[in-house]
Model the fold of this input.
Amino acid sequence: MADPYSQSHLLSIRNLSKRYGNLTAVDGVSLDIRPGEIFALLGVNGAGKTTMIGCITGLISNFEGDIRVAGYDVRRDYQITRQLVGLVPQELNFDGFFPTAETLRYQGGYFGSRGNRERGDRLLETFALADKAKANTRKLSGGMKRRLMVCKALMHQPALLFLDEPTAGVDVDLREELWSYISRLRDAGTTIVLTTHYLEEAENLADRIGIINRGRLLRVDSRDNLMRTFGRRWIEVRLSGTVPRDLVNALAEYVPETPAPDRLRITFPESAHHRAGEEAPVKRLMLALQNAGLEVETLEGGRNRLEDIFREVVHSDRP
Amino acid sequence: MTSDNLSAETRQPHRGDVMTPGTTATADGPGSPVATGDGRPPPGAEEAARRHIAAVETRARNNRGWRGTWMLFRRELARFMKVAGQTIVSPVLTTILWFIVFGYSLGSRLDEIQGIPYVDFLVPGLIMLNLINNSFLNTGFSLFISKIHGSVVDVLLTPLSPLQLIIGYIAASLLRALIIGGLIWAVAGVMGASTLHNPAFTLIFMILTSLAFALFGLVVAILAEDFDHINIFPSFLLMPLTFLGGVFYSIDMLPSPWDTVSLVNPILYMVNGLRYGMTGVTDVPVGFGLFLVAGSVAVFGAVALYLLSTGKKLRE
Done:
């Protein structure tokens, strides 16, 4: 049995650019993916996610920059890198000549894999397509075609799986099943890069998140770090009387607002929330209310989500 | 290349040179978290991934791609056999009808052409017509329809080299053309046509012609962007050139200057090459015909290889 892979990164991208005439679809992207992680690439439609994945997986061969999978150059050593990577493309596709099971057998066969019949049947079982094994692929529903595409990508047991918008057009139940499967797949040793514009997907699954806009990778960080850096919390109290002016002034650093005469809302960065001692905003608010002898009727609180962070990062990149 | 002899440059993560300031791009980059749940995969998953990568890498380095090529051929073969009524039976039946109508009904009113019965004269032309059409259509249609349906990515993602892709596709086309050509040849023999002058030469000529047009079909399918592009060649080029290429007549029967004009039609040499192999008669030099089909294989093969190697049209 081979020694475990020892390099730090499974995928290394350096200064990747792809141009179509005057349009720069990917603009100087550099990124590393670590073995065993789930990485989510977030971006709006046309941000460059699919083009970037195309360059890595071999669907696009003319690009500038350097891409290596397990140290192998994706253009020079494509016969090795294409066996290391798998892709579930964004666009639904089907091979209208064959039934699902047969399609899987051929797909495994192209990669020189053996035991394709058994593996194909197992995957069909896993993805609830066993009863469609003999059905022509063109007769499958959209969700079934999507699942079949996942099966196809897994037939050669890739080490690095790209899922390009895997849950687009998939119903809620199936989406959650797919998320669960992705997690299990990662636990079993498959490194996963997924693109999505469902931020909930990234929030639920990803260890790290990259935000791409207009071909440029604006930010890459762990999910928790992103939340800490860009996250905001808010607290809103409803008092038994009008909010005093002094109280508002005393909390000036927390952007106090009074949505109604008896309501006070403060907003502060996630990082401030974790500060210990008297500096913590919640404690400051409570002390101020106590000192002013004010009675709190109701108290609400919350935090912004990854979606808000994503918007903030992307909007700051506007030309 | 193995992972053990990678250059130091590729072994080392490129620390800190990846992202805009203040961000963390590399898992090991500055400011990167250490604890699980803060950007790093769970330790168990990373260990499992490292073992899995090593296993796939070992398998990948041992795979030369020929099994995959064989599977592509099998897939292509299965594709046309699934619609055999359309891809095999229909062209054979249609040609037999041509053969009966032109060879026996109308042909019986003709005297011999170049010293052989008209039926014998007609068979090679009809076979050539089918070899050209079916070898072109098999690769052309198969690849083009997969481009339209998007399933071409299934093939583009594979580790098959440009040469292996070409072999997988054209081997199936060749087989389809030879099945059809062989069936027509056999039926003609059963019906009394005498076409066994030089079977070895005939077979070589059939193979080379089929390969040339299978490669041509592949090139057209790579370049084609809509159905018109794929149909334009069989309808507006191959069919007229084949009909004007001496399938039904000898160019000696044409009035001047059309007998001379016909000499620029490459398919004339192909039809006559096959006619020579089957009956021993020809309007044009057989050596040139052989050179032409072999040259076409080389030229279309080189173009297909160039397109697939550079990724033009398919990997853009």
Notes: Residues 66-310 of chain B form one domain. Residues 67 and 98 of chain B are 41 Å apart (CA to CA). Chain B touches chain A through 77 residues (CB under 8 Å).
